[in-house]
Amino acid sequence: MGDTAVPMPDHAVTHPHGRFNGTTVFLLHGAFGAKEYWRAQVQALVQAGCRLVAWDAPGYGLSPLPAGFGIDLCARALARLLEKEGGQRNVVLGHSMGGFIAQRAWVHARPRIHGYVLSATSAAFGKPDGDFQREFVRQRVAPLDAGRTLPEHAPGMLRRMMAEGAGGSAVDLLISTVSLMREETFRAAVAAIATYEGRDILPTLDVPVLCIAGALDATAPAAVMEKMTAKIAGADFVALEGLGHFGWAEAPGRFNAELLSFLGRRGFLG
Description:
This protein has 270 residues and is an alpha/beta fold. It has a single domain, classed as 3-Layer(aba) Sandwich (Rossmann fold), CATH 3.40.50. It contains ten helices and seven strands. It is globular, with a radius of gyration of 17 Å.
């Protein structure tokens, strides 16, 4: 890419246990997370013969928060990663903010992206001064402004985004991973989400796309994701009943079944 201002993101590559099916899946965490929380998806995809590349977005994990952090900077970093680690067939799975980054990367790396899985995301956040948007930001940063730490704030915040009673090892992993985030990265991610607009990208997507939502998700509502899907030619839409914003953690088996079904239908597991 030749863009020295954009850092190469930290990432982990996992190879299949058996025969490689030719597909590399790139896993992009949301605003609240890191590459470690994809454990159940890595296991399922590796068993299906996929190669996995899970990243820490710029400013996450051990990497410093870059100047000018935003969705486009992360999308350009993803383009560099696709160039370095991409293979014969590349599928980008982006959750929440990771879905924003995945879509924006189409502008920078279109020839290297052969499929998408967009989880609990949208094509735009809306007007930054809208009631929903202001409340979204307030709920996430006000406790920090009041002096709470992320380990104190994150568990309750995340559970409010899930279905009532959600639990299990994947949920525990999600909460522990987010609790380790740096506050500066958390705040920068919330600010970046609030300014994203990418609706013009949807009609240009000409690769297989799965949009997967939680039926109970109030952050990225299923109805919004269904409308988003309708703007992408030939895209598939699935709403997971009884689940919230983190369907892949709340019910990993159900999420993975839909993921593998899509990859199989669209020729990525052959």
